[in-house]
Amino acid sequence: MFLRTWRRFTAWRRGRPFWAGLFVFPGAVLILLPPFSNLKFGAAVISASTLGGISSLLIGVVLLICAASLWWQPRFRLAAGIVTVLMALVALVVTNFGGFIIGTLLSLLGGALAVAWTDEPKKPKKAKSLDDLSGDDPGDAPQDVEPDTTQRVQPT
Fold this sequence. Notes:
single chain; two-stranded antiparallel sheet; flat; mainly alpha; 2 strands
């Protein structure tokens, strides 16, 4: 039963930018939570009543929505990835250094993965046969190699 569930999860995961959402989610949490936990660093108090607290609420919620969108609506991965990158960069300046920089870095990585993700399967590489590797006949070129059309320039 566990193996069947794992295979279904793996099939679900491969059909969407799973790792992108997995990086954006903790980045959003790191941006969202510190202003609301009343942290004290010496004499400095991080509070939600400041502009950083309200901004972290808005940016954190937008990033959580982007993470959910990456998992459940993969067709919006490009828009969610772009919004994630922009919000992570804004969070670095507006909120508490973007979740103490770790939240921004995780969100940037997740946004980049979302933009780069594609659902097209990889093309398998052609296996080389032993005849191609032996080199018995140097005049025969492999079928999948294009002829060299570049010009070589001699140094003067």
